[in-house]
Amino acid sequence: MAVLWKCGVQQKAVLDPCAFVACVSSNAARLFNLYPRKGRIEKGSDADLVLWSSGLELSTCAPEVVVLRGRVVVQHGRPVESSVEPGSGLLLAPEPFGIFTFGRTETVKRSQESALKAVPREAYTGPVFNLNGHEKTPPREGYYYRKEVYDNVPKEALPPGQRIIHTSVKTAHPPGGTSNAFWWDR
């Protein structure tokens, strides 16, 4: 707890003091399904308190005062002899499958068990395309540039700036000239 206080609250300010208390007490009690009996200061809850000194150093990380069920059991960093009686401990048996830990699994299970329902709709009555291949589509804009009809195209059909490429030539020269040698032969 001392390391979390020093690194999380004092040095990096990732946590505020309330978030620190939630990390070390409330969330821990929720994780073990002991909340609100543990991890909360309220009527009916166990008032187990640990008080740390404000000038706490990491080398001396002992609590100043520990209050257990209304009794001071540690004071000035040492156990108080008169407050500890043999057999005064109390075993808490938490309920299994707490909501804090397993609450999301119940939600996932419920969403998986919910059945998908069909949406009632009327049959589609709009136009349907004939996809059997006998219907011809209108020619597209790039129709004249296909290889099989390229030689028969009148030259004025080419857009301005289009260069004349012979269909028998498989490659065109790159910008800057021909490239018939590998890069290491230059």
Roughly how many Å apart are the termini? 69 Å
Structural class per helix/strand content? alpha+beta
Extract low-pLDDT stretches.
none
| Rg computed from alpha carbons, rounded to a whole number of angstroms | 40 Å
Oligomer: single chain
Shape from CA axes? elongated
In N-to-C order, the SSE pattern is HHEEEEHH
Give the beta-strand count. Answer: 4
- Mean pLDDT equals 75
What is the count of DSSP helices, taking H or I runs of 4+ residues?
A: 4
Strand order of the largest sheet: 1-2-3-4
For the largest beta-sheet, the strand count, sense and barrel status come to:
4 strands, antiparallel
Range of strand content? 5-15%
Into which percent range does the helicity of residues fall?
Answer: 10-25%
